[in-house]
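Lay summary

Proteins are chains of building blocks that fold into shapes. Our project writes down both the chain and a compact code for its shape. Here are two examples, one after the other.
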Amino acid sequence: MARIKRYCDRANVCLATLSRQAGVSQPALYRFVHGERKSVTKTARRVLTHIDNQHKQHNSHGGENRSEGCRIIDDAVNSVWDGRIQTAELLAALIRAIKPVLLAAEAVGNTLPHERV
């Protein structure tokens, strides 16, 4: 249950969206997440499999550039983070909030500043 809730928070999706993405009934997912079902149901297994696949797909991005990209992002975050958990939460929220902008730029073929020649 907690894993599904964490995924929804991190991916910024509601249970209805997650149920559609995973191909399961929204009421069944709601009942599981809210503790009305104590055992891991077929619905929950299917949703957890979907979440695992999303993580695998996300983690496969970047290939050989992944470690360099992680280093660049890490350096940027460390340059502004003051060590407080509140600041970390704010930075994480800001990073997640820019995802739609990055996706929109990619969809229309815009390049990022470092990609322009």
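And here is the second example, written the same way.
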Amino acid sequence: MDRDKQLVLISFFIEKKAREDEQGRLTGKHEVVRTEPIPYYLSVSASKGNVENSPFGIDLDYDKTVIIEDTSCPVDESSVFWVDNVSIPESGDEIDEGFNVYYTGGKSHDYTVKRVAKSPNCIAVAIKHVEVAK
């Protein structure tokens, strides 16, 4: 049902890039490059729930389940979500250039993907809450 959906932002993995120091030498560290957050209206569970309704079983450590009806969505275990850190803009507010800052207040993602289960009709995603330092 459309009324049970909420605004969620998803950022997809692009590549892992090697970091360089000021002299252009490789540091041995890598940085993950992702897409700008993309808005979706999705069904998000209130919490993990009980075992009978758990599509991922009891062994997987996750907090919520997200259902994506668009089966062509490229979500995978490297994607990140903004679920609780998203606010819907007030009508009449001016949208600035920074989409991410506008909808999230500059906050980083608050959920990572633990498991993806694809079916012909939808994609179920198990997500885990994380604290990300800016």
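What can we say about the second shape? Residues 66 and 99 are 22 Å apart (CA to CA).
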